User: What shape does this take?
Amino acid sequence: MLANYGYKDGSGEYFIAIDTDKCNGCGACVKACPADVFEITADPFDPLAEKQVAVIKEDHRKKIKYSCALCKPTGERPPLPCTAACEPQAIAHSW
Amino acid sequence: MTEAVATAQKREYWRWREYDWRDESLDWKRAGGISVGIDVGSVSSQAVVMCDGKLFAYSSLRTGSNSKTSAQRALEVALQETGMPREKVNYLVATGYGRVNIPFAQKAITEIACHARGANFIYGPTVKTVLDMGGQDCKAIRCDGRGKVTNFLMNDKCAAGTGRGMEVMAELLQIPIEDVGPASLSLPEEPPPVSSTCVVFAKSEALGLLRQNWSKEKVLGSFCLAMAHRTVELLSRVGVEKDFAITGGISKNIGIVKRIETKLGVEALKPSIDPQIAGALGAALFAKALYEKELSGNAKTGS
Amino acid sequence: MITAGIDGGARAIKVLILRDGKQLARSSALTGFDQQATVTQALESALQQAGVAREELQHITATGIGRKAISFADSEVTEMSADAKATVSLFPQARTVIDVGAEEGRAIRCEPDGRVKDFAVNEKCAAGAGTFVETMARTLEIKLEEAGALSLKAEKVIPMNAQCAVFAESEVVSLIHSGTAKEEIIRAVHEAMADRISAMARRVGIEREVALVGGVGRDAGFIKALAGKLGMELFVPMEPEFAGALGAALIAAERARAS
Assistant: This one.
């Protein structure tokens, strides 16, 4: 499943997509993220599954553009810590 | 309970009617398992009662200030006249905005998962894309033939593209919410869309257009078109696969539905049951699955 | 040499007249639906105050979202360039400018001479601009001018969850109903705005000193909240809403000299 966390408002579209088929629940993203936006839990969108997956914390979903601001400087952009840390490449940012 | 219902009925001038339904031909006493789903949304609450996976009764009421009482009332109204006591319910799943505040639910499940599952029941297994436009959010869900979510997004950050945004505009133009759709379609030709996505800015834009002598209908058409554009853009993130269905309060607004259909080149499925109960229905289906899982678990451990 | 800068903002039109780098006069008018007429009116009023005839203006530079509509301007400049130029002339030690206007928020990093190094903009969403505070003040039934002083009286910071001006209105209404003090509600509004603006500023990289300009720079509650988030004092001009017009007038003078 592709879980798209974030929003679209007048200023643009800001989504982090987590591919739960690829995510192995290892938690590397949780450690890598300086803004503490990830957590590992039972999949809230697939209640019958037993697997633990990465999700974006509830309180960051409506302000993800701001939560992620530090890793997205206007100048040259280094690789994002979360996507770099994710071995199965389950995380993608839309902006 | 009767007091609560009475006060609610006094307030019947509101936007929509509360209702309930039950299948009198079904004898609940012979059911092996009774599952209930309750969806406590920001505006309305629904309760669905199922007997062995068959739809038995449901209610749709306005949400009060308290999630727990709203859920209780929805269940009581659904069960009234059925003679079924609440204790007969084997498993209860809560969903929606207020789901975590319902202590008598065995489990709380996200509305995304419940909507997909409920839409699968209402529209059948061919439904692959569900757009749910609610009072305070907009969800785009892709699901498989069993109603399992494969791709989704939920926008509850921004009022544009939600029922709330529509209400703001209807209030500004002083047009009753249920007339918005037909009024917006009463024009000889489609006006250009308003340029602001943000509802606050669209409001000032609309005032400007009225000053330029645009009719209220033209302003509404322009706003509905912009809202449809925005929704289609949002849908494109998850992709649209046929069959396609629109649920939620805004599915009753023909001005939005028609424009989304035109833009997508796809017609939305017509529901056989009120799609407003999709969330509660999905929750009841999950309740059934979880009850069966519990039974088989107990059988294995021998308890 | 006499030049004018005109800032066609979303809410107000600001005109500022300079003689040899010194401010002669300034005026502002609410942006109406006939922008051209409002601009002319604001310019006439500034000229009158300055005691200068229109013909004496050697160069007029326009900036702001409505700059394209100011047909009689000799040149135009982006809001970022105007802000940076004005800020460095007011505060030579400033390297970062945060401009919060009615409908846009901007952060600009600039060179010591006032050229733009880098910038970030938050536009087209009321949550990241002055409109947000204005809408909440209206819901609280307080004057926008009172918001700052009221906010400073708040005893504690309460969280605000809504990230949209429309949803925040309902949140404010339920806070009022639950008996929360207006001081605390407006403080929450300022803190929420400051969260968004400071995150945007961090994208351009914060280099000391930091100045705040734009109409929201009048709001002491917002200044305090933003300074708190950034962990530093902010430089705020006396008339922060005129920064864009000042920058445009300074650039007009440079252009007049060059031609």
Chain A touches chain B through 21 residues (CB under 8 Å).
